[in-house]
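Hi team,

Filling in the usual template for the complex we talked about on Friday. All components are listed, including any nucleic acid strands or ligand strings, so the model treats them as one assembly.

SUBMITTER: L.P.
PURPOSE: interface mapping
COMPONENTS: two
RESIDUES: 621
SEQUENCES:
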Amino acid sequence: MERLKKIMSAVDKVNLFTGHVMVYVLLLAVLVISFEVIMRYLFNKPTNWGHESMTLLFAVLYITLGGFCHYYRGHVRVDILFSILPIRVQAILDVFTSLFFFLYILALTYYCWLFYWSSQTMMGGGTIFGVTVPGEMSFTDWGPPLYCVKFMMPLGGVLLLAQGINWFIRDLHMAVTGRRL
Amino acid sequence: MIELGIEWITILMFGSMLILMFLGLPISFSTGAVGVIFTILLFGPGAVAIIPTRVFGLMNNYLLGPIPLFIVMACILERAGLISDIYDMIHQWLGWLRGGVASATVVACTMIACMVGIIGASEVTMGVIALPEMLRRKYDKNIALGSILAGGTLGILIPPSIMLIIYGMIDQVSVGQLYAGSFLPGFLLAFIFITYITIRAYINPEIGPPLPKEERASWNKKFRLLLPILPSAVLIFLVLGTIVLGVAAPTEAAGIGALGALVIAFARRTLSWKKLVSACLQTMKTTAMVLWIMFGANIFVALYVMVGGGDFVQNLLLGSGLSKWGILIIMQIMLIMLGAFMDWVGIFMLCIPLFGPIIRQLGFDPIWFGVLVSVNMQLSFLTPPFGYALFFLKGVAPPEITTRDVWLGAFPFVGLQMIGLILCMAFPGIILYLPRLFFG
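RESULT (copied from the run log):
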């Protein structure tokens, strides 16, 4: 039991840490797009990487923060029926509906992994532990690697999944014993 | 793999999604789960492989950049104390009016709405500053709560609005034109709210006493209160001006807005690193919530359109024998009903891909419809049981304010918003005047 609690709090910490890393990603994206605008409109020297790098930074931010948001139970729900129920019944309902959550996020994570892997092995890339990496590059002038952004998709799925398992255990505990874990 | 008629698919997909939602599964996961299950049922497990492509398409979308950028701008300005500055200023300028503190709240909310694209910031801050103030001055509870609730929701309509950014992306119309179109409806609504408050206060002075003479500031002080707001006003004028005039893309303007907010906040020495991090974390919670709803709802609706749902809804509405105005009104009623139960992001993702083509076929202006839908969605923040604004305000209100009080306070303002919506429908010029002026 103690061990389980330790693992659960580790999962919480990983998602909080992801959130704090993304603070810098967000601020970096703000600086990148502002730099691009200033170069473009004031100095008439647009970069070929400003818009795309901002977009990719945000892509990473969106997908990895699913778990961070779920840590706060921030994914908004319709709680007309829900909020008037006793906490224990809420927990029972959460245990039941989380089956659908797991189905969705498992499918998403698995297929995102395949999606990432096909990007990693594109254009003659592949074999990770024997190294020789590069894979899919963007088709733009700047041509940044896309495979590392796509890698964030299964990663974001796993982070959300882990946080979902955390909530599932807490809800199950509440449903069975009527006490908070 | 099952063969099903589109009628059955419609009933089963929407039915199971609604059941999951009512059981408390978040909207993002309900839509996504139903999307995945029906993809497997209708096309087999291999077809799920298309879903990551769709998710990546949304993630990697330049047009969605303004969502985090405008939200972080709002959070920074709020943490830097701008919202309370605006309130203090308007409070002194309008306090002499009967019901003046409530009217000042609406005007302050309208000004804040011109700087933020979401409702949380103004709803919460006003609940903390303006509500206790009005209660202390013996304002009628309903008027006090209603003015904050209704004023705060203007944030989602008046540019820089996150709602219109997402609408523009889904329906592929110009965000600049949508922005231009939503100014007048927003101001019209604020005007309706203030008129209502003032009339009520003149009929019965008890419910909204003006500021006592000794508390009114001199002209000198009134002008001095304008100073701290000036830099942000200039910033927002630049940001919105460039978008509405089509000089810069919304993402570019939003980026400058976020940077400008940082600069202003640091220059005022009211923003510590800690506050900045908390503003960013708040931004990311909201952004992640919005984007994950978009992922899930996109999986759902893309499947539904693929199996012929778009044509089905189109034939159903166009073949109903109603006039084009009849169909429009049916759509508005459907949106109001959905809005009472669901989050607007989900509604947009589910309904706009279906309604957009119909509106064009009926010969309505897509920009006009977009703003009209947004005015409608603004209502959804106030309609119980699922009204964000109600939760936000209840969360920060003093304990003697019950949920029932908050609902009752919102009630007359829901009616006023309906009037605004009907006016925008009956007189398309309210929405279309500015876009035509700027874009010809």
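MY TAKE: Chain B is about 75% helix and 0% strand. The longest helix of chain B spans residues 273-306.

Thanks, L.
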